[in-house]
Amino acid sequence: MSIRVIGAGLAGCEAAWQIARTGIEVELYEMKPSRYSPAHHNPDFAELICSNSLKAERVESAAGLLKEEMRRLHSLLMQCADGCRVPAGGALAVDRDRFSQAVTQKISAHPLIHIHREEITEIPQDGITVIATGPLTADALAAEIAALCGGSLSFFDAAAPIVSAESLNRDRIFAASRYDKGGDDAYLNCPMDKEEYERFYAALVSAERAPVHDFDVADPKVYEGCMPVEVMAQRGADTLRFGPLKPVGLRDPHTGHRPWAVVQLRREDSQGTLYNLVGFQTNLKFGEQKRVFGMIPGLENAEYFRYGVMHRNTFLNSPRVLSTDYSLRERPSLFFAGQITGVEGYMESASSGIMAGINAVRRLNGQDTLILPDTTMIGALSRYVAYGSEADFQPMGANFGVIPPLEPHIRDKRERYAAFSARSLQELEKIMAENQLE
Ligand SMILES: Cc1cc2nc3c(=O)[nH]c(=O)nc-3n(C[C@H](O)[C@H](O)[C@H](O)COP(=O)(O)OP(=O)(O)OC[C@H]3O[C@@H](n4cnc5c(N)ncnc54)[C@H](O)[C@@H]3O)c2cc1C
Q: At what angle do helices 76-83 and 10-21 cross, to 10 degrees?
């Protein structure tokens, strides 16, 4: 008896791990390295294709609570992430290569997980299967899924460039975290005065964009959270100064003042040899990235380890087809997990993999599937996926808006969020004990 998992990304690795933990064999299929999506480059599993940040750490934040729930559910990815973190202020960021290596090693060493490096082009008809092939699912399988699920939606994401640390001009750049939170080795800051900002802004909005391949809709929607910096800039001259280039909580030691705007660089690896441009997801042509981003003080001679890119991102209209346990209503032996279900984000994807894995085993064993209460972040996201608006379904990341309100209401936001987290973890512990998940 075994369960198939297709895709060894963030969700697929978690699903495989959860299944194997229960003593069930897993046949895990991954198309890399024989085939790569346009955004994947590393043959290892659980590749982080854009930012290396897994978002906020504080358990009283939505992203922090999600991660804590995952830890308690024996998440493989959280175990690996905790082991290869890099300084990132209040966020949990990881050395992406070490992270993927650690996940790959754990999965490869598990005696019950059998790895097949091959592309799956058809949806298996027999047995229990978890499809976790992500937002860039290879074409043949994507077409099968669309046919089975009555069409799927697409929108577009962009990734930010990464530059080498040694190419940065340290005479202009200063190291500091906003409001001095989290030490000064997490972020480098490129300060701009008003004139520098205006010059940069003018170049950015008029820069040449790359044609986007792979479009399967005439007018592509761009996901707000990953919006290209040049698109955001077009909303107004000051939009960036109130967004990714906000100078708040930062003082330039060279001038003693708060800059007009600041571009932050976040460490990519533990050695500090690579940095990504925070919030600079982009679809500019590579030459234009070099020219326009070279106008940012400190990046005049930056060497690009990777340029920013823009890609297709496909997901199901899940409220139409999926149950809360991530199985297909019409075919309960088939589960979906990850971004393809309409959760949004690395850890959100991974968390749905945990639930799909647990529930695939329960289905195999003839048990009822396990639905976490919507007072937990993981449970609330699975409800959103199954019961969101069919007419306008959009991917959803962890946030406290999807969690039912507290009774009585707590006015103070910090206290309210702390209460959400405490309630969630308490209920999760209870459910885990009742279902022998400890
Ligand atoms: C360009 C881009 C940038 C993003 N940036 C961020 C970000 O910065 N932060 C964030 O939180 N989220 C980001 N996301 C959203 C999302 O969190 C990630 O896409 C995440 O990797 C999704 O996890 P997953 O497990 O669903 O898919 P993936 O991690 O993509 O895993 C899918 C795996 O399946 C394999 N595969 C695909 N098709 C087949 C097949 N037919 N047969 C066998 N194997 C197959 C792939 O090679 C891959 O290894 C981004 C998404 C995109 C597209």
A: 120
- 438: which residues sit within 8 A by CB, 6+ positions away? 432
Beta strands in 74-229 (DSSP E): 85-86, 91-94, 113-116, 128-131, 153-159, 162-164, 174-175, 187-192
Distance 71 CA to ligand 1 centre (A): 21
pLDDT band, very low/low/confident/very high, at 154 (cuts 50, 70, 90): low
CA dihedral 386, 317, 149, 2 (to 10 degrees): -50
Residue-wise pLDDT for 291-340, tens only, equals 999 999 999 999 998 888 887 778 898 999 999 999 999 999 999 999 99
Cα dihedral 216, 220, 225, 231 sign: positive
Beta-carbon-side half-sphere exposure of residue 121 (alpha carbons within 13 Å)? 2
Instruction: Report which protein residue has its CA nearest ligand 1's atom 20.
Output: 346
Cα R_g (the chain), whole angstroms? 22
Q: How is residue 226 annotated by DSSP?
A: G
Its pTM stands at 0.78
Does the beta carbon of 31 lie inside 6 Å of ligand 1? yes
Which residue's C-alpha comes closest to atom 19 of ligand 1?
A: 135
279: left (phi over 0), alpha (psi -120 to 50) or beta: left
| pLDDT band at residue 152 under the 50/70/90 scheme | low
Residue 420 has pLDDT above 50, yes or no: yes
Q: Which atom of ligand 1 is nearest to the CA of 55?
A: 11
Rounded to 5°, the CA angle 248-254-260 comes to 35
Q: Are 348 and 65 in contact (CB under 8 A)?
A: no
